[in-house]
C-alpha cells in the first residue's frame, strides 16, 4: 500500500517507518526533523504546527495515499486539518492515541470500553489525556457523519531502542551502570504495563487492509506486566547488576527522578489486548525481560552518546535524606 506517516523522526513513528518498509509498503513521511529512514522512503519536510504548512505540503499529494498514520496529533487543532485533508481520499486513517485517556478503575484489566475523560480536571494525565480523547471524538464523529475509515491505537507505556527522553530507560541504565541508587517514591508495588515499541509498530501495520479494524479502538500493551520495583529489577538484570533501590520517605514531597509513571501516585493499571489479538491476529513478540534486554543492547551499541543524564535531582534528594538522617535502606 501507499502509506503516509505523520511524524516518523523519533520513536513510535520511526519504528513504524521501518516496519512498514520491511513489510513492503511504499512509504512517505511528513515531519520537521531529519532522521535515518528506510531506503526508498520519500520525505516531505514541514512543521505541522506552523499555520498553513499542512495544506501547503500535503495538498499536492493528498490523493496519492491508501492510508495515513497520524502519530503527531495531540490536540483537536492538530486533528481537524488532517480530517479535512483526507476526508473521502484514504482507505484508512490510523491515529496514535494513549492509555492516558482512561480513568482509574478498580476492575482490571482495562479494555477499550472502559470510561475515558475529556476533562483535564478529572483525567489522570491532565490535558494530555483529555486532548487525546477529544481527537478520538473528532474521528468518531467524522466516521459517523461521513464514513471516514479510522482506527485508534491507545499505546501503553513503551520501551525499546531510540527512547526520546533520557528520563526513561537511558537514565536508569546509566544509574545502574554507575552503581547509583534508584530513588523511588509513592506506591512502588503498583503495577505498570509496558510494551516494546516494535510490537506497537507491528500492531499498527496489522491494521492496514483489515476492514474489521475500521471504526475500532485497540489497546497496544505487552503480554506481561509487573510492579514498579519489579521493573527496576528487570532493568538491572538487563545491565547485569544488582539494583540499589531506595524508597524515598513519603513526607519528602519530591518526585522520583527515576520513575515517570503516574501509577506510583494513582495506582496500577493493566490493559486488555484481547481485542487486538482477536481482530488483528497480533501478538506481542517481546517479554518484559526481553524488551528491556533489547533496549539495553541498543543503548550500549548505539544510544549512550545521544543522551545527557542529569543527576542533580538525585543529589538534592540524597542530601535532604542525609540531612534528616534517613538511612538509605532498600
Strand content: 15-25%
Question: Looking at the structure, what is the overall shape?
Answer: globular
Alpha-beta classification: alpha/beta
SSE sequence, one letter per element? EHEEHEHEHEEHEEEHEEHEHHHH
**Helical coverage, percent range:** 25-40%
Mean pLDDT: 94
Main beta sheet: 7 strands, parallel
- Main sheet strand line-up: 3-2-1-4-5-6-11
Total strands: the figure is 13
Number of helices: 11
Question: Rg to the nearest angstrom?
Answer: 21 Å
Q: Are there runs of 5+ residues with pLDDT below 50, and where? A: none
End-to-end Cα distance: 53 Å
General description of the model:
- The protein is of the alpha/beta class.
- The protein is built from 11 helices and 13 strands.
- Helix 4 links the parallel strand 5 and strand 6.
- Helix 5 packs across helix 7.
- It is globular and about 65 Å long.
TL;DR?
By secondary structure, the chain is an alpha/beta fold. It is 37% helix and 16% strand. Helix 1 (12-22) crosses helix 6, helix 3 runs parallel beside helix 4 and helix 7 crosses helix 10 (288-303).
List the helices and strands and how they pair.
Elements: E1 2-6, H1 12-22, E2 26-31, E3 42-45, H2 53-58, E4 67-70, H3 76-86, E5 92-98, H4 126-146, E6 150-155, E7 157-159, H5 169-178, E8 182-184, E9 191-192, E10 194-196, H6 197-207, E11 216-220, E12 226-227, H7 228-239, E13 245-247, H8 263-266, H9 274-280, H10 288-303, H11 312-323
Parallel strand pairs: 1-2, 1-4, 2-3, 4-5, 5-6, 6-11, 7-10, 8-13
Antiparallel strand pairs: 9-12
Amino acid at each position: 500500500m501507499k502509506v503516509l506517516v505523520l511524524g516518523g523522526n523519533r520513536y513510535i513513528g520511526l519504528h513504524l517507518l521501518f516496519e512498514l518498509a520491511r513489510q513492503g509498503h511504499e512509504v512517505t513521511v511528513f515531519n520537521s526533523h531529519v532522521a535515518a529512514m528506510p531506503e526508498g522512503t520519500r520525505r516531505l519536510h514541514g512543521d505541522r504546527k506552523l499555520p498553513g504548512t499542512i495544506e501547503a505540503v500535503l495538498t499536492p499529494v493528498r490523493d496519492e495515499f491508501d492510508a495515513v498514520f497520524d502519530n503527531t496529533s495531540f490536540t483537536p487543532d492538530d486533528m481537524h486539518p488532517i480530517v479535512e485533508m483526507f476526508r473521502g481520499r484514504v482507505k484508512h486513517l490510523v491515529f496514535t492515541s494513549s492509555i492516558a485517556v482512561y480513568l482509574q478503575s478498580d476492575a482490571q484489566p482495562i479494555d477499550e470500553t472502559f470510561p475515558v475523560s475529556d476533562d483535564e480536571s478529572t483525567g489522570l494525565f491532565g490535558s494530555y489525556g483529555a486532548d487525546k480523547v477529544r481527537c478520538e471524538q473528532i474521528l468518531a464523529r467524522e466516521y459517523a457523519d461521513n464514513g471516514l475509515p479510522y482506527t485508534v491505537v491507545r499505546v501503553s507505556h513503551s520501551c525499546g531502542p531510540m527512547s526520546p527522553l533520557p528520563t526513561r530507560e537511558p537514565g536508569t541504565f546509566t544509574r545502574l551502570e554507575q552503581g547509583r541508587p534508584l530513588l523511588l517514591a509513592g506506591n512502588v508495588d503498583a503495577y505498570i504495563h509496558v510494551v516494546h515499541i516494535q510490537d506497537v509498530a507491528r500492531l499498527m501495520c496489522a491494521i492496514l487492509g483489515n476492514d474489521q479494524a475500521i471504526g475500532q479502538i485497540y489497546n497496544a500493551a505487552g503480554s506481561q506486566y509487573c510492579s514498579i520495583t519489579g521493573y527496576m529489577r528487570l532493568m538491572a538484570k538487563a545491565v547485569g547488576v544488582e539494583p540499589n533501590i531506595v524508597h524515598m520517605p513519603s513526607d519528602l514531597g519530591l518526585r522520583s527522578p527515576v520513575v515517570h509513571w503516574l501509577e506510583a501516585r494513582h495506582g496500577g493499571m493493566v490493559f486488555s489486548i484481547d481485542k487486538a489479538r482477536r481482530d488483528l491476529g497480533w501478538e506481542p513478540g517481546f517479554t518484559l525481560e526481553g524488551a528491556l534486554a533489547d533496549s539495553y543492547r541498543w543503548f550500549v551499541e548505539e544510544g549512550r552518546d545521544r543522551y545527557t543524564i542529569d543527576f542533580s535531582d538525585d543529589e538534592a534528594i540524597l542530601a535532604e535524606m542525609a540531612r534528616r538522617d534517613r538511612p538509605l535502606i532498600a
